[in-house]
Each structure stands twice: as structure tokens, then as C-alpha cells.
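User: quick one, sequence for these C-alpha cells?
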């Protein structure tokens, strides 16, 4: 697990995921909701709720460095969840 001091910039994280357009909280929110559509139907509502809760819990964040950390971590977490379900579907 990475420490907060070694978290890559959001641009690096986006490039690792094959996307380069997530730079703001609004873009992240839209990206994550779209990623939920790639999940199995029974899991989509759970992760949409999780995205909304995360967005609401960090809505008052004003430190640009902290926002970048949150974006990076959210992208990493989304990639992990998508891979988790991709692995499950490939094992069937």
C-alpha cells in the first residue's frame, strides 16, 4: 500500500488507467459514475451510493494537494473494483 507521500499526481494515475481527462472533482464524479455502469447490475447501485457518499464527505475540502490525493486514490480504487469484477467474470 502506498503512503500519502508517494501518491502519484492525478495525471500519472489517469495515464495508468488509460484516461487523461480527470482533473477536477466534477470530472472525477462523472468518471466514477460512468465506471459504475461497467459493473454487474447487482453491484451498480452499491458503488453509485459509495461514489456519492465520498463526494459529499469531501465536499468541503479546499486544499489543492489534498484534492489531488483524493482524486488519485479514487481512480486507483475504481480501477481495483473494475478489475475485481473483471476477474470474477473471467473465472466463470
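Assistant:
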Amino acid at each position: 500500500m502506498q503512503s500519502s507521500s508517494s501518491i502519484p499526481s492525478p495525471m500519472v494515475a489517469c495515464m495508468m488507467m488509460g484516461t487523461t481527462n480527470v482533473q477536477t472533482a466534477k470530472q472525477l464524479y462523472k468518471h466514477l459514475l460512468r465506471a459504475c455502469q461497467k459493473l454487474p447490475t447487482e453491484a451498480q447501485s452499491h458503488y453509485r451510493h459509495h461514489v456519492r457518499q465520498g463526494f459529499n464527505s469531501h465536499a468541503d475540502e479546499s486544499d489543492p494537494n489534498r484534492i489531488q490525493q483524493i482524486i488519485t486514490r479514487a481512480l486507483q480504487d475504481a480501477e481495483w473494483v473494475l478489475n475485481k469484477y473483471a476477474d470474477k467474470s473471467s473465472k466463470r
